[in-house]
What we know:
- This protein has 17 helices and 18 strands.
- By secondary structure, it is α/β, with parallel strands linked by helices.
- It is 35% helix and 18% strand.
- Helix 8 (269-284) packs across helix 13.
- The chain is globular and about 85 Å long.
- A hairpin with a 5-residue loop joins strand 1 and strand 2.
- The strands form six sheets. A five-stranded mixed beta sheet has the order 7-4-6-5-8. A four-stranded parallel beta sheet has the order 9-13-12-10. Strands 1-2-3 form a three-stranded antiparallel beta sheet, with helices on one face.
Amino acid sequence: xxxxxVSPTAPGSPQGSxxxxxxxxxxxxxxxxxxxxxxxxxxxxxxxxxxxPGGAGCVRWRCCRQSFQELAGIHRHVALQHGGDIWxxxxxxxxxxxxxxxxxxxxxxxxxxAPGSKGGEPHDGQAGGTPEISGxxxxxxxxxxxxxxxKKGEVLLYYCYCEVKDPVKLCDWQKALCQHLHLTGKxxxxxxxxxxxxxxxxxxxxxxxxxxxxxxxFKDILCREDFxxxxxxxxxxxxxxxxxxxxxxxxxxxPKIVSYKETGIHLSPQEFHREVEQYLSQASQGQGDTILLDxxxxxxxxxxxxxxxxxxxxxKFSYFPSYVDENLELFKDKRVLMYCTGGIRCERGSAYLRxxxxxxxxxxxxxxxxxxxxxxxxxxxxxxxxVFDDRYAICSNxxxxxxxxxxxxxxxxxxxxxxQHCRQLVLTCPNCCNKGLTACCPVCQExxxxxxxxxxxxxxxxxxxxxxxxxxxxxxxxxxxxxxxGKD
Length: 488
């Protein structure tokens, strides 16, 4: 026999009995794994509203606020996201092979995969795809479940404009990557690039950044500095949403008409800081050749903004082009300094403003407020920075510049309007909340009472004083507005 080779064990020998016992234990363990996996999936079943072909309700699954219509989908989700839960049910502490074994369990439960695919993950270099998108996932075999799911983590914010020939393939890879690393959040993919904000453990987010930087599609375009981070984690988002869209930020203008390639001049946080300092100095002396323009929505600028800014009272970024069209005179022959949360809205927003050919110059803050606050936490930006997750805001200074909607007390912590039909955000302090004042306006407050008491069986719409009183596209009548706001 060759060195290291083991001779066959004779049946009935002590060694044979031990081997048989080991096989038996392994079979029982596999059986227990299958049973625990199946029971976990079974617990996620919900009846569908529409009846199936046979008249009975179709089986669907719901988990982590996601709906699954196919058995393969819920199996893959459970294997990737709930391995630790199943492992703990089995009383097993060895998590080293957990992800691998459960992934195999999910694959075994599913129907056979298509030729060339593995575990339902995106192909790499398969026919019909583009070689520029790599479908590889980072190696996590040396990491425990706890390493990837620690609640103490961070939230990443990033975007990358580039030409994507196969957005669907990039979307599939992104979804697999985020699930592999137990990340939650939102990722938008389009032919013009990718825009994402994801949360997870620091180990998981670091792996995510490294994997993104190694993706051939983003080579020489995306760099580590393009990822903005803040304290948080997977708990900051209700689920994971990855999809293909026409635009990676919804401005409502075809990217072929207004391209990110026609953007304004990028200024570093240091350069932007100097420009704002000069602008405020000139404004105090009554000189007004510059506009400091906030490209965000009104509820964002309400709790935090640059001193002396012009903050349009618009609800959605898709209203921004109309705002520019209605206020062209305001921008005529002006130098415009634009900013937004992370920089992405300025890319297309500045391109749209430049397409009107009325401004002298258009500049934008590279990396947005997020990057500016890293270098100037006590600079010219005052108040909180609004973020699109369950935190609603992050802060770098102690300033509170907004007030409770009901009593006027300084307050800047948003909550959703308590009326079920409404999606408005409301600033209501703890004292007013204790009094039951939790809606965005009296109309919503009344509708909430009707729904709660069952006084009205009619379905209610998102229509209240907030939406009725706000002009969809405000027109700036006061030409000196930027000069006056320079004093706040």
